[in-house]
Amino acid sequence: MNQNIFRKYDIRGIYGLDLTDEIIEKIGYAIGSLIVENNSDKSNQIVVIARDVRISSPIISEIFIKSICKTGVCIHDLGIQATPVFYHYVKTNNILNGIVITGSHNSKDYNGFKLIINGKSFCLDNIKDIYNSVGKKNIKLQSNQCNIKKIETANQKYCDDLLQRFTYKKNNFKNYKIVIDSGNSVASLTAPKVFKDLGCDVIELHSEIDGNFPNHNPDPSDLNNLQDLQKAVINNNADLGFAYDGDADRLGVVTSDGNIIFADILLMIFAKELLQKIKKAKILYDVKCTDNLEKVIRQYGGEPIMCPTGHSIIKNKMRETHALLAGEMSGHFFFSHNWYGFDDAIYASVKLLDILANNSEYENLTLKEVVNKFYNKKISTPEISIYYPDSNKNILIENIIKNSKFENAQIITIDGLRVEYEDCWGVIRASNTTPNITLRFEGDNEQSLNKIKMLFQTEISKTWPEINLL
After folding, report:
1. Catalytic (active-site) positions
2. pLDDT tens for residues 87-132?
3. What end-to-end distance do the CA atoms of the chain give, in Å?
4. I need a surface site. Which of 111, 339, 373, 379 has the fewest CB within 10 A?
């Protein structure tokens, strides 16, 4: 069994290679047994299961449900649903356990499990516990005691709940033409409906469900995957474009002139809007975000908290700190004010449009103009991903931290290595979802951006001679 599929905040691998039918069955036994052990009350021995549209998802779901059933738990099967719809069902029905079968933003060959156990998103040591439990012979099976309940209303209830928070302003949304790229995935079941019900003029792109993802990989954090959306926004004279990943918890945004707005800049817009209502709110962000974000949060009276990357890690940190908002450079956004605190790209896209349509300060302004209104623009790279084997990538990062010496810099090692100077910063970390090393750089100008890249090239190459950042 490949231990690397048990990642920091979910279980994920290539179906048929790392994630075999036998391993899936054993994972089902282990998770079911964990749910039973944690809940002596039979009424809490319930698990919600949903899946994305990947070709492998139906067979994984079938095997997983059969195996987890044998531990005696009750199944609420949502079928094909966006991950935010799954989270919403779990939250609003006060169910403690849930598993969504998804490869998220990964390519079509990947699949896996996002987990909620005993009311918390499973990550880090909890994922290791599942790995340690897989294959144990002392698991007690209770055949023929499983009850499977098919749920047909989850998507409609999610849409109704979201819409009732915004439809009192519905007339303002009618002025917007929106292009939605669902990436041939689950977002097509929910996002177009929501924006149409709000009164927007919606142009759909890649709404046909196809687990082979024939048009592009459903990952809006990769700028190459936004090219179709950029063209469609410009060609249709649209106001905005939204793109979603394979399970609709990551968001990409394109302006009317085809520019891509990075997620950390969007988080500044969300932060300002929240802090104008609730002073001193805590706002979380990951290590790949611009340092302008911290300044904006402080400027409007909030408390910025930098966190390791990872949707499960951030959700648990929000619970711990009572933060009202969080976001990641990858496009995950978490709203605890007026929503439920889970990562939800569909809610985030509606919220962004709500701010543009209904904030008098931004009247008649485009998104690009709103960004320029308060953002001290720096020069930053997108996320840079370089292939590195899963088995060695964490060791590489540990050695880079140990061997590199950045003089007179602030060093942050909560997730990889982030190095900050007054006029620039850079970060290098191991991806938790792919066999990659991720980097990002930012500077006040081209000169400072080149400076931090040169410093990283010099220091990292002590451990990783093949690296080329220049």
Report:
1. 104
2. 999 999 999 999 999 999 999 999 999 999 888 887 667 787 788 8
3. 39
4. 373
